[in-house]
Amino acid sequence: MSVLSWNCRGVGLPWNIQFLTDMVRQEKLIFIFLCEILNRRDKLEWVLNKLGGMKVYLWLILKERVGGGGVGDALAKLRGFSQNHIDMEVNVKGMTNWSLTWMYGEPNWSQRKKTWDLLRYLTRDSNLSWCVIGDMNNIVSQQDKRGVAQYLRWLIDGFNDTLVDTGLIDMEIVDHQYTWERGRGTMEWMEVRLDRALLSTTWMANFLEAKLYNLEGTSSDHSPVFLIPQKFE
């Protein structure tokens, strides 16, 4: 069982569809969360039908709605959603249930507090062990950014205060740390770790061998992040 989160910048592109289908077949991918789709509704329905037929949970964040579905309630139950999050309860045989939340942080700096407040609300709403994954649109330190200009200090402080309030811990990424890049080969180049997983201490205790990978080399300016909670059977 594994989870993929991707700000894909156009899911209907043939190579993106091929990437996702290969991940499902080869990596036992179960949960797929996508945002910044940039496709017509008819194309999105085709994507949902194609990947939905592969027994995965696929959820898309659109500007006007949240769309998606999955293989039924046997493994996961939808608890709530908005234009910036999807919250599910996961039930794995032989284990206690846990909460999986996908998050798309507000891209507008002036609205970022809405994301922080949403995380605070969700932590009060559940007593389950908790994993949050997604494009947070935020960093936890200046070391999460390379290139021109420093990140705004108040955004770093606000995000870190949220992590303290929620008890969530930032998970390390295996190999390359930066998940978003702009301006390669120019004086405006930068790369930033915007996509991440945040874990409660109880979730970490339940999944001691969990790994988070940065899957580089896709067509988007964001890399997909790929979470494996436990070893494959």
Kindly describe this structure:
Residues 15-222 form the Endonuclease/exonuclease/phosphatase domain. One of its GO terms (molecular function) is catalytic activity. InterPro entries: Endo/exonu/phosph_ase_sf (IPR036691), Endo/exonuclease/phosphatase (IPR005135). Strand 3 (57-61) and strand 4 form a beta hairpin. This protein has helices spanning 14-27, 41-52, 112-124, 153-166, 201-206, and strands at 2-7, 29-35, 57-61, 66-69, 76-82, 85-90, 98-104, 129-135, 145-147, 169-170, 180-182, 190-192, 195-199, 211-214, 225-228. The protein has five helices and 15 strands. With 233 residues, it is of the alpha+beta class.
N-to-C series of helices and strands: EHEHEEEEEHEEHEEEEHEE
- The number of helical runs is 5
**Mean of pLDDT:** 83
What gap, in angstroms, lies between the N and C termini? Answer: 9 Å
The largest β sheet comes out as: 6 strands, mixed
Q: What is the helical fraction, as a range of percent?
A: 25-40%
Q: Within the largest sheet, what's the order of strands?
A: 4-3-2-1-15-14
GO molecular function, one term: catalytic activity
Protein name: Endonuclease/exonuclease/phosphatase domain-containing protein
Domain Endonuclease/exonuclease/phosphatase: 15-222
InterPro entries: Endo/exonu/phosph_ase_sf (IPR036691), Endo/exonuclease/phosphatase (IPR005135)
How do you describe this structure in short?
The protein is an alpha+beta fold and 233 residues long. It contains five helices and 15 strands. Helix content is 25%, strand content 31%.
Task: Give the helices and strands, then pairings.
Elements: E1 2-7, H1 14-27, E2 29-35, H2 41-52, E3 57-61, E4 66-69, E5 76-82, E6 85-90, E7 98-104, H3 112-124, E8 129-135, E9 145-147, H4 153-166, E10 169-170, E11 180-182, E12 190-192, E13 195-199, H5 201-206, E14 211-214, E15 225-228
Parallel strand pairs: 1-2, 2-3, 7-8
Antiparallel strand pairs: 1-15, 3-4, 5-6, 6-7, 8-13, 9-12, 10-13, 11-12, 14-15
Helix pairs in contact: 3-4
